[in-house]
Amino acid sequence: MKKFLLRLLALALLIILYLSLTQAPISPLAYAPAPAPHLHGVLAPNDALTRAELLAQGQVHGPEDFDFDSAGVIYTGTSDGKVVRIYPDQRVETFAVTGGRPLGMRFDPHGNLIVVDVAKGLLSITREGAIATLATSAEGRPFKLADALAIASDGRVFFSDATSYPLGENEIFEILEAKPYGRLLCYDPATQTTTVLLRDLYFANGVALSRNEDFVLVNETYRYRITRYWLKGERAGSSDIFLDNLPGFPDNISRNADGSFWLAIFTIRKPIADRIHPYPFAKKLLARLPKFFWPKPSYYGLALAVDEHGRITRSLHDPTGQHLREITSVREHEGHLYFGTLHDDHLGRIKLEQ
To answer: Is the entire prediction scored with pTM above 0.90?
Structure first.
């Protein structure tokens, strides 16, 4: 017992020495998040996602987002800088190589695949796989992490520039800082210009247009909320909160034909992260510790159905996180739901109930 206490004391002294000799890499602000909603009622856990079919398993890595062509072929990006096609028989072939990290993608009205790429910016890929760069900056500020997009009927591209931190590099720093670096942007192909619609967003992530294209939604991942920017009507040019205090970190969002939305939740909230947010000093200490001590995201699969008024109407879960987890995108297509992920080697698919 005495030896154990001495070792514990020595470890504590080493940690104190380490902290005294290192400088905090962040200058965080205090932030007091609302208590996380309880998982009951419409949010009650179920096992719906544990029954998902895994598509192209072992053939794709990090299919974060995806879209379908008129023949039902899936197009998705991979962590090695490719855009690949997944055929109905699950055969996979390379469609294009961006040389960066393709994330969000949608087909435009002319059949081109518009892609937001972390390293390359906003891209357009023809049916033959030829790549053209549409935009790499706005207001003189280069895109740091172009993330997600939605395309209007007139071809305008609404997309997010999530943060000033590179993808995969110390995401916890931005969470702890509680500072807004994200932007919502619009690229107009008619003028070939990019306009900033909203700035100072807390990790601007998924983007979706309303059925009537009178507003566009953008997820603020590190504020557990969805922000709405009005495009038409008396409120055009203003913004408000569409859905707040989500049970986890929202990623991509997609619209259905009836005007409702599917929302991907990357992971559920961790109580320790919410508790530390009001205390900048504690967040500085955590940021100075080796990564071994940092809180790890919980493995949990979660997707939410949201109506056009911002009400959650359904939730799909994998509480174990062993089958579908870290879900980054959800799309409805021909009676099925499809799921993307940032790190796993497959897409998911379940049949929608009648």
So the answer is: yes
